[in-house]
Amino acid sequence: MNDERKNIIQLALDPVNRPITLTVVAAGVWLCCWFDWLKSHVLSGIHEWFGYVAYSLVFALGVGIAATWLKRLWREVPHVRLFAAAMLAMTVWQAGVYFTDLFEWFVLRVWAARLGLAAFFGVGLACLIAFIEFKSSGYRRARMAAEFERRGGRPAVAVAGLSQPSVGVPAQGSTTVGGAAPDASGGRITNPLDEEAYYYGKKAKKFNQSVAAIVVYTLVFVIGFWIMSLTGCQEIYEMPAGGGEQAQLPQVVQVKKVKRQKFVINPLSVVDFNPPPVEETVLELLKITKHAYTVGYGKGKGAGFAGGTRRGMVRFIRLEYPGGDWNQDMGSNGIGPDLNMLVQYGVRTQHKVAKLPETRTISQLGNFKKYKSPPFVYMTGERNISLSKGQIETLRDYMLDKHGMIFADNGGSGQWHGQFVAMMRRILPKVEPVQVPLDDPIHLFPYPIGKIPYVAPHGGTRALGWKVDGRWVAYYHPGDIGDAWADGHAGVRREVWESCYRLGTNVIYYSHHEYNKWLDAQNQDEDD
Amino acid sequence: MNMTRSMISKRYTHYFLHLCLSVFICNSLTVTANAAKLGPLEQMRVEDYAKLREVERYQLKIAQQYYMKEDWKVAAGEYEKFLQLYERSVGAPYAQLMWSNCQVKQRKVNTAIKEGYQSVIDYWPQSPEATVAAFAIGRAYKASGEVRKAKKAYATVIEEHPKHIVAILAKLDLLAYAKVEDDQDRRIALLKNLTFDTPRTKENGSYCSNAARELASIHFYGNAFDEGVKALETTYKDGSLTYYIYVYTRSPVSHMTGRESQKQAGLKLADRVIKLLEAEVPTDISEDKAKASAREWLYRVASMHSYARRQADVLKTYERMVKLFGADDDLRGNIASWYISHKRRDRARQLYEQFDDKIKGLSLIAGMLREDGKWDEAIQVYTDLISQDADNTSKWTWQIAECYESSNRLKEAINTYRQTDNFPSNYNAMAKCHRRLKQWNEALVLYNQVMSVPSAAPAAALEIGRTYEQAGKKESAIRSFQRVCKQFPKTGQASTAHAHLQRKYNITVTLGGAKDD
After folding, report:
1. Which of A441, A500, B141, B281 could serve as a FRET partner for B253 with CA atoms 20 to 30 Å apart?
2. Which of A287, A433, A268, A453 is nearest to B516 (CA)?
């Protein structure tokens, strides 16, 4: 056993095999980094810059190695060349997505991801067809050689048999002519890589094999993609570590001194000169928000939540639901106003926030672990909401068992108001919606909201809420708050969009605060 | 001279007294009228009001005026002023209560509870306002979605003030919770308490009656006929009892007979009700009053058969009525409806033709023809109606125009709509036809004329945008939609235009954003 292991190591370190060994090791590191960048965030958790450097090096190295292999194998047989090209394309795609994300070229990143996926599909298909062709021609040659040997070195009678051996004289023991070909043992061929397999029919076998390969590959790709998007792997959401209190952010007003104009008035002047009264003198005020208190929960260091982790961050997740336009205002880059709100939340609360907003389907929402699920998801639209029974169950489970909250925003119609209320009636049939009071903590911390700001009163002017056990599990904004977060702010006045940002901050903060309270209570229960 | 002066003085004194009396009466009437607008829990007791000083009354009146105008913020300020100025007044708890109400109206529910209602209870525990405040706390918790706290507050009210009207109101709110939570046992217990155990007064009578009706309905659905009747007996007697039994058994009968598992029970229930209804039919119908009464009860019998899905019995009842009272338009109409529901339209038409009121009969025939898609025949009938009923020419002409429009004869429809006089509906209808004919300019001219009517202007402005859009004039369409947003920002049309601009043209246009409530 030890000898075997030594042999393997020697074989790997052999100067001939050394490039392969290095490539395998590099591929392993590359995969680990890839997973870490997407999911586990261990490297970036050590230090943000350490993560950046490590990922950049590894991904750049991956591209370099793949390019070297392509150069080296360029003169080999087409299949090997194609394989090497595919590997290079894969690493370039992955590195492209990473670097565009690193440099915050978000539009480019989205396109790189989309085009890369399409290219991945195409390259995979090409590789599969090449592989099938390679194997298929191998079987054909083997069969012809066997036939040649059986005939004592005489070539087969039918010339067409070179390309279509089954049309020629049947092999010994065969009972059919031009029918299902037998394998070496005389039975039917079932190997799908062999074009003589019986299920490819009697005519146009090659064509049937190619069509079958394309159909099966596409189905597997689509189903795989669907399953990934439907269930995915189990996800986690962690809040940023830190502490703070549920306090209002004090407004510090810095007065910019304005030189007052002096008017010298001749009381006997014939000109009717009316200087403005002192009360109407405009003072240019520059409001600066000073963080006299740290907004958060618990006694951790810095702004954040005691139940959070160092890797955790506040994420803005938009809910994908069937039936309507969940992606309203997201634009071609798939970001929309969500990013603005997320950035504003980070600036205002000093909490660590994600670089980009995200979207999740209802099924994906169900994949989040209990105690590690998003404290809120954002939902908007103006058309229909048509959820299945299972999706309703998932949302109920999210709101009640996982202590989540839906932040809904009517994106443009009275119809959506009815749709959302009806959806909530299905999710929580025993809870009636009420108008959220203006002096509720959700409207007080960190910003006191004197009145509900709205862009257009699509569903009225009052915010509705669904409360379970003293906690808002759904907050419905009737007037397109998302429009105010967008670039240009839908043309509303500054005070309105500023108030909309504040309200958004309050709702996000409330959900995290409540989530942390719940985590604390759970921990206390366990301790008891 | 002195005497004259004394007489004049007396007369003036007399006038002055009259004037004062008039002012006092007017004032009292105003206060009474204002008070009448306030809810029973928002009013001060008369005996307490009588104890107030004039200045206190004056301050309360000012606050109340703002309260009536729904200017909650100012009203709260005025009540607060009262509390600051006259803290020891008899009216202080009332002012504190009303201040709290103002906070609730401003959607500051938590402030109302902590700083308002609770203060009334803490500082003036013996005052009548404290009782109301205890209940108002429950209501405030309800308004803020705190179900558990609301229930607790209501339970306290019921326990501490069982005979006060607030106890009834608290029970009603608990009943609403039981209904939402589908807690049938709790619901029935509360309803029974309100129906049987609560002495009826002028204040709570309507609440208890409603509870009795609800309880009866539940019992009827649960196939407990006698229990239901018992509940209704607490509120109704004799003939009216039978009538309400009929009213509250209709839905359960229809519900039960629609389900195979409950069909027999439903039919049995219907039979019991019909038996009661039949008992109410007078045997001697020689007098008109008795005849009318018999007619009403028999209609109810027919209706109950219909709810029990025994259609043959419905017709039999109508035929029985024809035998008893002779045929008239009302009966003919009902029988014709029955025939229509059984797809015997020719028979129904025959009955309509027999109508004594020929105009009504013809209009019903025309309606039937329109349902059958026989437009020309319908138009002919309407034309006959115009000749027979000249007073309603516009109405029948409109019907003809609708027939033309439905049969895609749009030019004729436009000409006919033009002959009607119900502006702006006729212009809207004509514009709609022009749009279907792709005559955009004509449609736009008509919509612009409709714009002169303020109530119809937002809809017309929106349609102008849509017409431009259909005509392929994108820029004009955008301008029109933007105009809707700008000119009518608070209407539903503005919301539609706003959403449409954003969705279709990716244009954001402001509707002004939030304003002060």
Report:
1. B281
2. A453
Residues 6+ apart with CB under 8 A from B92: B82, B83, B86, B123, B124
Mutate to test the interface with A, among B510, B516, B517 (most CBs of A within 10 A): B510
Q: Is B142 near chain A, with CB under 8 Å?
A: yes
Ordered structural domains, chain A, with CATH: 2-132 (no CATH), 302-527 (3.40.50.12140)
The distance of B109 to chain A (nearest Cα, Å) reads 6
CATH for the stretch B357-422:
1.25.40.10
How many CB atoms neighbour CB A205 within 10 A? 21
pLDDT over 90 at A400, yes or no: yes
CA quadruple B228, B231, B235, B241: dihedral, nearest 10? 20
Find chain B residues with C-beta within 8 A of A463's C-beta. Answer: none
Pairing mode of beta strands A358-361, A434-435 = unpaired
The residue among B502, B515, B517 with the most chain A CBs within 10 A of its CB, best to mutate, is B502
Kindly state whether B504 is in contact with chain A, defined as any CB-CB distance less than 8 angstroms: no
Question: Which residues in chain B have Cβ-Cβ distances shorter than 8 Å to A440?
Answer: 109-110, 144
- Phi first, then psi: give them for residue A492, nearest 5 degrees: -80, 165
Tell me whether A48 touches chain B (CB under 8 Å): no
ipTM field: 0.71
Token output for A242: 């830190």
Task: Tell me the shortest Cα–Cα distance from B51 to chain A, in angstroms.
Answer: 36
* Beta carbon pairs, A and B, within 8 Å: 105
Extents of the domains making up chain B: 1-35, 357-422, 445-517
Quick one: average pLDDT of B49-55? 94
Out of A429, A458, A467, the one facing B146 most closely (by C-beta) is: A467
The pTM for the full model equals: 0.68
CB of B389 within 8 Å of a chain A CB? The answer is no
Average pLDDT, chain A: 81
Dihedrals phi, psi of A485, to nearest 5 degrees: -80, -20
Residue B147 contacts A, CB cutoff 8 Å: yes
**B429-475 residue pLDDT tens:** 999 999 999 999 999 999 999 999 999 999 999 999 999 999 999 99
In 10 A of CB A319, how many CB atoms?
23
Whether residues B495 and A414 touch (CB distance < 8 A) is answered with: yes
Q: Given phi > 0 = left and psi -120 to 50 = alpha, else beta, which region is B516? A: beta
Task: Identify the three-state secondary structure at position A507.
Answer: helix
Residue A33 pLDDT exceeds 50: yes
Q: What is the pLDDT of residue A18?
A: 74
Chain B, nearest residue to A489 by Cα: B508
Q: In whole angstroms, give the CA distance from residue B344 to residue A183.
A: 74
CA distances from A455 to A12, A490, B56, B482 (A): 67, 7, 44, 15
**Whole-angstrom Cα distance, residue B430 to residue A129?**
64
| Average pLDDT value for residue range A28-45 | 78
Picking from B221, B275, B222, the residue whose alpha carbon sits closest to that of residue B248 is B221
Q: CB neighbours of B319 closer than 8 A, spacing ≥ 6?
A: none
pLDDT at B463: 96
Those residues with Cβ within 8 angstroms of residue A286's Cβ, 6 or more apart along the chain or in another chain: A253, A254, A256
What are phi and psi for residue A471, nearest 5 degrees?
Answer: -130, 135
Confidence class of residue B14 from pLDDT cuts 50, 70 and 90? low
Task: Label the pairing between strands A406-410 and A471-477.
Answer: parallel
Confidence of residue A175 (pLDDT cuts 50, 70, 90): very low
Is B512 at the interface with chain A, CB within 8 A?
A: yes
Secondary structure element (H or E) that encloses residue B384, with its range: helix B375-388
